[in-house]
Specification:
Elements: H1 15-21, E1 27-30, E2 33-37, H2 42-53
Antiparallel strand pairs: 1-2
C-alpha cells in the first residue's frame, strides 16, 4: 500500500484554478506538477506514486 494525502479542489469556486486548468479537467497534480489530465491512468499513477516514495 502507498499512503498519500489527497487534496481535492473545486475549480468552479477558484478563479485562479479555473483559468489555469479549465481545459484539463480532471487534472491530477503530484507535488504541484501535472501528472495526468482528462483521463487518469491507474497504472501510470501507481508507478509515479511508487517512484515518489522511493
Amino acid at each position: 500500500h502507498i499512503q498519500v494525502n489527497l487534496v481535492e479542489h473545486d475549480i468552479l469556486v477558484d478563479e485562479e484554478l479555473w483559468n489555469k486548468y479549465s481545459e484539463e479537467v480532471p487534472v491530477l497534480l503530484i507535488n504541484g506538477k501535472i501528472h495526468n489530465y482528462w483521463r487518469i491512468d491507474p497504472v501510470r499513477l501507481r508507478g509515479a506514486l511508487e517512484e515518489f516514495v522511493r
